Amino acid sequence: MTLEVDVLEVLEKDARMPVDEIAKMVGVTAEEVENLIRRLEEEGVIQKYKTIIDWEKVGREYVYALIEISINLTEDEGYDGVAKRIAEYPEVRSVRLVSGTYDLLVVVREKTLKDVAYFVADKIATIRGVRQTVTHFSLKMYKEEGEILYQRDEGGRLAVSL
Prior knowledge:
The chain is α+β, with helices and mostly antiparallel strands. It is built from five helices and six strands, in the order H-H-H-E-H-E-E-H-E-E-E.
């Protein structure tokens, strides 16, 4: 199991790392790493390889919203049912069952604020069991999927404006 975890941790940091480099890092042959990765893909342990893109650098802007959702539980549908219906929408980036004052935290990506508003009003709020929503808009992202999205000023501090 340790070899699996070691390889998975390397892939999580850099999915494009060549197999021979991974093999050197974990102390086995490239063929063993290839076979392990193939098996982990087949078993569904490795779900997908994904690229993190800074869309602003290519002139495309998106609006990200974090939506807190409170749910009225019913006999025939619990958290999972509502969460799975929400997860089916292509606008939805993530859905999490959370502890605290609300039940689900949903991250949505749309082209405009108006698109987010329509999504919440026309799709989320109309789902049976949804009691209340609170929407927060992301103003700036500093880190995504474990990756820092800004240029580091070595030895310096992040600028603060008041």
